[in-house]
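Agenda item 2: orotidine-5'-monophosphate complex prediction
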Amino acid sequence: MSRAASRAPFGARLASAMGARGPLCVGIDPHPSLLSAWGLSDDAEGLRRFSLAVVEAVGDLAAAVKPQVALYERHGSAGLAVLEDVLEVSAEAGVLTIADAKRGDIGSTMAAYSDAWLGEGSPLAADAVTLSPYLGFESLRPALDAAAATGRGVFVLALTSNPEGASIQHTGGEHSVAKTVCEAAGAENTRYAGEPFGSVGLVVGATVGDAVVRLGLDLAAMGGPILAPGLGAQGATGAVLRATFGAAAPRVLGTSSREILAGGPSRSGLRERAERTLADLA
Ligand SMILES: O=C(O)c1cc(=O)[nH]c(=O)n1[C@@H]1O[C@H](COP(=O)(O)O)[C@@H](O)[C@H]1O
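Presented output:
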């Protein structure tokens, strides 16, 4: 039996991890300022020590970790080699991985991104990857199909946490861009009928206020998980998150990076902040 065939769908694995550990994803964002605050050098060795310390500290607490790919890319091939190791060590630690790569391109090129982040045997393959639908939701088809074939998942940007996102995502009147993306994800998740979550998730920031309601996004019916950045450093709290998502709150995976990472480099400092965030989300 191939590895792909033996892996349960991502949505089912995430639902089970959230049920066992709670709805927290810890972002691994090795910003230069954080490396410095931890007494580490802004190079591949500093990146490695930082990232592995985070996985070691929270790998048994969080449902998922989310390495921010840009912060590895800025170190070139040495940084990407570290990312490969982080993904492998995380898998060994039993925590799900979401590569925050925000990829999106015309279909033929998308197939190559899909091979890299979701392909069986790829050194960069994670349990899920973030995708941008700016070239049209259907341009993501290679990744949607690869995710289904390999038991992996995707999180498609719908309502991002940054204030500038509204200038595109809120446009379109009754058929806003965000609502269109939400409906397309819902249609895609029909292939996962019977699973606790579909494997096609959305990114909706915990900072978007009443936009979910105002734009008429039916996140509960969408069927997939919701990755909600914006906790901590961007100002959102567990209470804000519950108010923002309403009936869809049980499918929300809250994600926080800088707020938790600022607790390092000590293991206890990182765990204390992760546990505090988890308690806030409960
Ligand atoms: O896809 C994401 O994770 C993402 C989407 C979004 O709308 N907003 C957002 O902040 N993110 C990412 O989530 C992380 C947030 O980091 P903190 O603000 O430090 O918690 C960064 O890696 C962002 O790139």
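Discussion summary: The pocket of orotidine-5'-monophosphate is lined by residues 27, 29, 68, 100, 130, 160-162, 203, 205, 229, 232-234, 255-259 (CB under 6 Å).
Owner for follow-up: CH.
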